[in-house]
């Protein structure tokens, strides 16, 4: 059985509650011997859950509907069975502007979905295709979305289930090299977006910075390769690699700066 000691990893109240629910779900799997599926989880909480499950009696598969998904659902079971992606109960929906001359954006897609009263946990990644956007959602919510989602921002849209392979476009953005004095969160965010560390620390107090999908609470949190940082009003980046040091001993990093389509 899973005890709640590992919840102490989280300082944020909402994340502690989410972690507690996940542990309860894991215990239900152990007790019932039935296969169960989590909601969509962010990078941070999914990484924590993987650590919790390692070496336990619960086997798992993490899948988000796309290769290299940031948001995933966990299929959980105690049976020594082969797990496969379909068990994650994920449906891919395609949203296309009704007017071919109009271009949809990631933010308007997510914002319009949330305005339907949906929780973020039923929505996975949003990827751009050649015609519009592909959205991963839980199977349970697909019909509600199909019946009620008719616009994104000011644009009218057509929504349908993807019944065949769709050409997903590469994530839009640019790579750049930055220099920071340390591995600290505030230093990396400041260097990435051209801000002062003082301003970044104020943004952290205002809970407007996310680290791997979770609210960043500590300016001195250590950032590592693979982490995804977002700052409200500034943008979103991914740490690709540490690129050595400068002659003055500062750290060089290669980052990917996402751009909104």
What does this structure look like?
This protein is α+β, with helices and mostly antiparallel strands. The chain has three domains: 4-88, 2-Layer Sandwich (Ribosomal Protein S8, Chain: A, domain 1), CATH 3.30.1370.160; 90-161, RRM (RNA recognition motif) domain (Alpha-Beta Plaits); 173-258, RNA-binding S4 domain (Structural Genomics Hypothetical 15.5 Kd Protein In mrcA-pckA Intergenic Region, Chain A), CATH 3.10.290. The protein has helices at residues 13-32, 43-53, 106-114, 142-148, 185-193, 197-205; strands spanning 36-37, 59-63, 73-77, 90-97, 123-128, 133-138, 151-152, 155-161, 173-180, 209-211, 214-215, 228-231, 235-245, 251-258. The strands form three sheets. The chain has a six-stranded antiparallel sheet.
How many domain regions? 3
The largest pleated sheet is described as:
6 strands, antiparallel
Alpha-carbon distance between the two ends: 45 Å
Hey, roughly how much beta strand do the residues contain?
A: 25-35%
Number of strands: 14
Query: What's the SSE pattern?
Result: HEHEEEHEEHEEEHHEEEEE
CATH architecture of the largest domain: Roll
Poorly predicted tracts of residues: none
Query: What is the CATH C-level name of the largest domain?
Result: Alpha Beta
Structure annotation, total helices: 6
Structural class: alpha+beta
Secondary-structure blueprint:
Layout lengths: L12 H20 L3 E2 L5 H11 L5 E5 L9 E5 L12 E8 L8 H9 L8 E6 L4 E6 L3 H7 L2 E2 L2 E7 L11 E8 L4 H9 L3 H9 L3 E3 L2 E2 L12 E4 L3 E11 L5 E8 L3
Antiparallel strand pairs: 1-3, 2-3, 4-6, 4-8, 5-6, 7-8, 9-14, 10-11, 10-12, 12-13, 13-14
Helix pairs in contact: 5-6
